[in-house]
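Lay summary. Proteins are chains of building blocks that fold into shapes, and those shapes determine what they do. In this project we predict the shape from the chain. Here is one chain we studied, written as its sequence of building blocks.
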Amino acid sequence: MEEAGKRGCLKEDFRLFHLKDSRAQKLDYHYHEFDKLILALGGKVTYLVEGVTYFLKPWDILLVQHNLIHRPIIDPEEPYERVVIWLGQSWLADRSDPDEELGSCFDVARQRGFHLLRSGAERRLHYMSTIQRLEEALHSAEFGASRMADTLCQQLLIDINRDIRRDARIDAGSYQVDPKIEEILRYIAGHLEEDLTVDALAGRFYLSRYYLMHRFKAVTGCTIHQYISQKRLLRAGELIRSGTPVMKAAEQVGFSEYSTFLRAFRSTFHMNPREFR
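And here is the predicted shape, written in a compact code that computers can read:
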């Protein structure tokens, strides 16, 4: 598999897609620079997010934070219908209160290592109503339609934030994970600046080199080198955009040679770090 690539470009505050595919699409692993909500409406789809496999049911909500590597696997036997909402980071920040960030539901999901919200029947009807009204507002030419859509999108996120904090239960049948690979992924995320070679990881987690390479690729779809390189570059991009000097950002995420970092950065983002900033 090639390294995960960026998909989609969001220039608006947020964007809603209501999609229904009558035939399966094969999508590679990818990531976005915006946060994404996926509301499953029909069909059979499995979603892989950072090594965890989710088996979606109608009206499940999947929270995919920016820079998380993910991919859907769509069963061609049934049309796959879903609502997908792309959320701009600036819009989320502008609509947030100091102690209540609108995008914090994505942080909660990432910290738990579980990105699925599965609600009961009553809440599903509530979400269904909100989504329907949001779609209507986005397609309306009536007075105040744009502000109404903005308000409804905020309401949707407030509801998701409340529900994800209120109900911490995890349906065991909704996902599948390899505990050892999950542990390794968490370690990688917290130690990007350190030695993360296959040999170093195999030694730390008491695995054979061959087993680690084979199992990691089977679970995540990436080789260890591809995954770590991608994570380092994505983190470097975040640091650069936050004002960290380019060479310092490269060093902080584990690139010992600046020329290597520069080549990899250009290959991933198709621009140099200063343009990216």
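What the prediction tells us: Residues 145-166 form the longest helix (22 residues).
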